[in-house]
Structure formats: C-alpha cells, structure tokens
Amino acid sequence: MRTSRLEAFSDGVLAIIITIMVLEVKIPHGEEFSDLGDSFPSLLTYLLSFIYIGIYWNNHHHQFQLVKRVDGVVLWANLHLLFWLSLVPFTTAWMDESSLASAPTVVYGVNLLAAAIAYYVLQQVVLRADDAGHLELALGNDLKGKISPVLYTLGILAAFVSPAVGIAFFVAVALLWIVPDRRLESYVAEHAAD
Amino acid sequence: MRTSRLEAFSDGVLAIIITIMVLEVKIPHGEEFSDLGDSFPSLLTYLLSFIYIGIYWNNHHHQFQLVKRVDGVVLWANLHLLFWLSLVPFTTAWMDESSLASAPTVVYGVNLLAAAIAYYVLQQVVLRADDAGHLELALGNDLKGKISPVLYTLGILAAFVSPAVGIAFFVAVALLWIVPDRRLESYVAEHAAD
Amino acid sequence: MRTSRLEAFSDGVLAIIITIMVLEVKIPHGEEFSDLGDSFPSLLTYLLSFIYIGIYWNNHHHQFQLVKRVDGVVLWANLHLLFWLSLVPFTTAWMDESSLASAPTVVYGVNLLAAAIAYYVLQQVVLRADDAGHLELALGNDLKGKISPVLYTLGILAAFVSPAVGIAFFVAVALLWIVPDRRLESYVAEHAAD
Amino acid sequence: MRTSRLEAFSDGVLAIIITIMVLEVKIPHGEEFSDLGDSFPSLLTYLLSFIYIGIYWNNHHHQFQLVKRVDGVVLWANLHLLFWLSLVPFTTAWMDESSLASAPTVVYGVNLLAAAIAYYVLQQVVLRADDAGHLELALGNDLKGKISPVLYTLGILAAFVSPAVGIAFFVAVALLWIVPDRRLESYVAEHAAD
C-alpha cells in the first residue's frame, strides 16, 4: 500500500476527531454572558484535546514523509494509534461532565499515555520497514518521545490526588510538542520521499 | 472514473463511520472508576466495530490498487457496500443499548453478513472490469472470503440462543482478517496499478 | 483553482452528509425483533437519501472530470449545491419523525427539487467555463436532467394529498439515475481531463 | 511538509464543520408547514455560518496555491485558524437556542473576529515563508482584509444593543467576500505553484 493512502485515511480520521469534539462542548442554557461560564471548562478541555490531535497529526505526517510504502503491520499499528485517539472525545467528555473529577482525569491521562505508546509502537514498526534508514537518522535520540511518557505517568499519579495538577502535566507535554521539531523538520525538507 | 476518486470517497465514508461510532459510546454518569464499568460493553463493541471497519478499509484498498479505472456498475456496487457499513454504528448502538440482548446481536450479525456479501459482489464486479486479470491471480482461492460467511451465519444462529457465543464468532472472523493477507500484499507490491 | 481541490472538498462534504444521516436513524427502545419495526421507516428514508447523495456524487465527478480548472463562480455554484444537499439530513429527519406526514414530505421534495435546480445552475456555469466544449457534447440533450424536475414537482404536488404517492415519485427519480449514463460515461472515458 | 497535506487536512476539517452544523438545526416538533417556522432562525444562521466557512475555504485555497512548502509555524497558525472556525457550530448553536439574544450574538461576532485575526496571522506567517513573493503581489493592498475586522467590531458593538443590527453587519462582511477576488484569482491562474 502506498503511504499516501494511509496518510489520507489518517487525515480523515484525525480531522473528524478534532471536529466532532466540539459537539460535546456544552451549549449554555441561559443567554447572558455569565452563562458562558458554564461552558468554560468544556472549552478549555476542548482546546487541550484539539492541540493534542493537532500534535499527532503534525508528527504523523513528518514521520510518513520519509517512508514510501507501508505493509499490513504498519497499517494495523496505525489503526491502533487511531483507535486510542478516537477515544479522546469520549474521555474528554467524561472529564468535562464530571467537572474535572479525579477518576475521569486519570482516565484521560491513561488515554493520552496509551496513544503515546501506540505512537511509539508505530514508529518502531515503521523504522523496521524503512530500509533507507532516513527516519532513524531523522529522529536522532528523540528526547521528547522519551520524556512524554514519564510526564504522562506523573500526571496520572498526580490526578489521583489533584486533577488540576494532573492536567498541568498534560498541558506541559502539549507545550513541549507544539514547539516544532526543527531537527526532524529540516531533515525531512532534505530527504522527503517524493 | 478514476479509481482514485472512488478510493478517496470510500476513505472519507469509512473514516467517518469509524469515528462517529465513538459518539455512541455511553459517557458514565458518575465520576468514580467503577462508573466506567457502565461504558465497558459500549467500549468493547466499539472496538469490535472499529476493527471491522479497519479490515474493510484495508481489503478495499488492496483490491483497488490493482485496478486503474472503474465504471458505473463498480461505483454502485461500492456504494452498496458502504451502505451496509454505514449501518454498523446503528446496529452497534442497538446491541449496546440492549446490553447484548439476543435480537440486536442477531441483527448485528446480519449487518456484518450483508456487508460481507456486498464485498463479494463488489469483488466480482471489479474482477469483470479487470481485463488484466491481476486481481483474479492475486486473490487466488480466497479461503478467508469463503470461510467468513459461514462463520457469520453460525454466529447469527448462535446469537438466537446465546448472544455471547454469537459475538465470539464475530470476533473470530475479525481475528481471521487482522492477520494481513501476505499473498495479496506481495502480489500488490509487484503489480500495483501505479 | 484546480478542479481536484473542489472535488476533494465536495467529496468530503458528501461523504459526511451520507454518513451522519445514520445518526438520525432512531435506535429501537426495546430489544425484540418486533422493536426494529419502529426503525423501519427511518431506515427506508435513510436508504432513499443515501441513494440520492450517491447519485449526486456520481454525477458530480463525471461532470468535473471533463473540466481542468474552475473559477470563483463555479466554486459558489458548487457550494450552493452542497448547501441544499446538506439540508437533506434535516428534511429526512423531519419526514421520519412525523412518520411521513404530508407537510414534511412536501418539504423533502422541495429540498430535492432545489438541489436539482442547483445542480442545473452548476452545470450551466461549468459549461460556460469549459472552452473545449467537452461537457456540452458529453451531456447531449440530457433527457434525465429535464425529466427529473417535472417528476419532483409532480411528487411534491402528490405529497399534499398522499405522502406515499409523493415518495413513489421521488423513488422513481432515484431509479432513473441509478442506471448509469452510458453516454456520458463512455465520453468521459475518452476525453477525461487528465 | 508539502502544502497539499495541509490543504487536505484543512479541507477535511472545514468539510466537517460545514456539515455537522446541520445537526444543530432544530427539527420541528409538529408536522404542519407552520411548525417549520420554529426552524427558520436555525436555518438562517446555518446558512450564514455555511457561507462563512465556504468563504474561508475559498480564500484558504487561493492563498496556499501560491505556496509550495510549509513549516511548523505555518502549520500551527493554520491549526489556530481551524480552532476558531471549529467553534462556529458552538457559537451558532448558542445564538440559535437563545433566539438571537444579545450576549450570544456578541459572542458569535467575537468568534468571527477571532477567526479573521487568525486568518490575518496565518497570512503573515505564510508571506514570511513565501520567498518568491508571489502571495504578497497577489494580495495587493487587501482592502477586504482591512475592512472586515472593522465591520466585525461594529457588528459586535451593535449586538450589545440590537442583535439584529449586529447580524446585519456580519451578513455584510459575508456579502463582501462572496464576490470573488478577481485580482487574486487571475494572479493565481498565472502563478499557481503546480
């Protein structure tokens, strides 16, 4: 299978995930500005999840730009990642409805951690199929990829005690990734597969 | 019509089906870990349906990689398949809401069987249009394609008595297909239409 | 703007319309086979609207295959068509919820008629931009395009008295279009823009 | 990253936004023509938001046709724009449910203004990356881009007193943009990046 098909399908799924989450944002019942306050937590968690899906989309494509063809194993590793990401609207909605209670925030963190692990598995599977070794060189020692699971785990543990602290960890990981990976980006610019 | 258009549209529909199903997963009412238990059957059937749509997407593209152009008959055979797949969120939701009762599980199985038949019809129609005979050779004797309808039928019959046994059959078919078809895959790698 | 962008966006919108309509199909409350009866009218109108969107997707692409570039006027004529088609889930849902009452069936017919007129306008705008005259030749005297609005109008008038007769007219138009337009198809096969 | 990937993802998100808004249109409870009146404000605001998303899609692609490759900064500026646009279904729904009350109309205007600012930021970021200067020349003095924020601000202020007048301003901006930008369009026709 050509990489472009896998990218197009993943694009579609990520575009839908990022957009349908807005359907979960609670519409205020009243019609005053103050009523918008009820939607605020919803809007903030929507923003956080929006950024996360955006990060995955970004990294996903940088990675696949260095690879020309994919096999069935890559395909299922990719669907595995999309599965965890497709649960983000669900875990976000539960966290919202509980007004950031402890258990739902832990579950949200577990969802993020599972997606990170799925992404790592996908990367390994792609590396194996990438004979030219472009991606391996491009990734270098992948510091962010190593720090993120640690921060997720700390966030999950913290959320047992204080959901707010847990979410602070999740926001930290997001910030870490928004800064584009110059190294991978410049490597891609030189060695893009097409 | 070029195959790429049909693939892009099918990609879109499958990406949406696979993603909107998560909107049907029931969000727990409470905010304890134990409340997540209410969503468990929902999550498991979501996973099963997610895998099914993933399998169809996978097979769909392997098949169309060997074909360059499609006519109106292929197009409608393809829409026929998409119609049955688009009902999967509906039959999954009914099965969930009934907590895996007998009738909804039977209907879910009938939906899977109808999609399998629609896929078979599509394959025959594509084979007819595929002058080069690439696909015919690639499919070989298509053992999985022949076993699946039998397993679906057994699952449907079993679900009349025990929904759990019925679902076990449907899981078995999914597992059968997750293992990628090396033969078709390697054939495609050599003879892809572009 | 290249035609491919307009096609990709239209593909996306049509894929979403065709798929989200299933969210409107009522999930049965009970868990017996007989409870599925409640969903039957929903499922049939879903099927009808699914076929209509499929027909528009089919014709849309056949038409644009003969055109290389589009301007702002074509773009807005296309969005105008997509607007009417995007209302189909709304008018279908109202017709369903009213159990095929007279007024909602009339409104459904008006929606179909408006989409047909929007398609005609789009066709004229594209013809104007199509210097090579390929599309004009391909369309020939476009008998179906001329009969359809008449049948829609008869269906709308009939629905005032009997919704069932009205719907019979709408089904008739759908059947008319499912049969692929061999003439246009063969012309496209010879003169496709790429 | 190639521009085509960014365009495909943005296409997907915009196609979904434009289509899921119809899910928010209230289906009439009764089954008489007069009951459709309840849906009228919903339908009109849907139309307005549909046109806005259409305008952004149109401008978005005209802009990116002149640019070949994009970096991480462009990517995040683009996601920033998509974030504000993805809130349009939410702010539209609140405005509807409040039957065009003052505060929700103001918030709708703020959403439109934020999207316009995000678009301006995106344009500046793209201009910076566009060495060839094609886009800068094509945009010229960008009169519409300068007038729109002023009209949005006036509309927001007016909506504090009269929501109807506020909406009149928002309709005016939409009309301003529906007229295609002949200058940019003809420039694009000559210098499109592919």
UniProtKB/TrEMBL annotation, chains A, B, C, D:
The transmembrane residues are: 12-28, 40-58, 70-95, 101-122, 150-179
Listed under catalytic activity are: K(+)(in) = K(+)(out)
Record bears the keyword Metal-binding: no
* Keyword match Nucleotidyltransferase: no
Classify the main location.
Answer: membrane
- Membrane topology value: Multi-pass membrane protein
Q: Where in the cell is it found?
A: Membrane
Task: Alphabetically list the UniProt keywords.
Answer: Ion channel, Ion transport, Membrane, Potassium, Potassium channel, Potassium transport, Transmembrane, Transmembrane helix, Transport
Q: Which InterPro entries match?
A: TMEM175-like
Q: Which family does it belong to?
A: Belongs to the TMEM175 family.
Name of the protein this chain belongs to: TMEM175 family protein
